[in-house]
Design goal:
By secondary structure, this protein is an all-alpha fold. The protein contains three helices and no strands. It has a single domain, classed as Chorismate Mutase Domain, subunit A (Up-down Bundle). It is 83% helix and 0% strand.
């Protein structure tokens, strides 16, 4: 196996773990959406979203810079909010 093959194998394994982790996070977001519905809370909570973005940038050790990390998590948060809205209509 060449070095490139080994690195690609590692990426495939990391991708599998990322998919598992993103789905676990999404399940939490769905549960939060259901709890917000029961509590009569709004799905969109900008203070919490800002807190998450600050947190991921604080713990980021690279090589992705904080701007890239922020953009990635903005997308993750967008999808979580979409799931929360789905919980709101069920």
């Amino acid at each position: 196996m060449t070095e490139i093959d080994e690195l690609r194998r590692r990426i495939d394994e990391i991708d599998r773990r990322l998919v598992d982790l993103l789905n676990a996070r999404a399940a939490c977001a769905l549960a939060i959406g259901q709890a917000k519905k029961v509590a009569g809370m709004s799905v969109y909570q900008p203070d919490r979203e800002a807190e998450v973005l600050t947190h991921v940038q604080t713990i980021n050790q690279g090589p992705l810079d904080n701007g890239a990390m922020k953009r990635l998590f903005e997308r993750v948060i967008d999808e979580a909010r979409r799931l929360e809205r789905l919980a709101d209509v069920q």
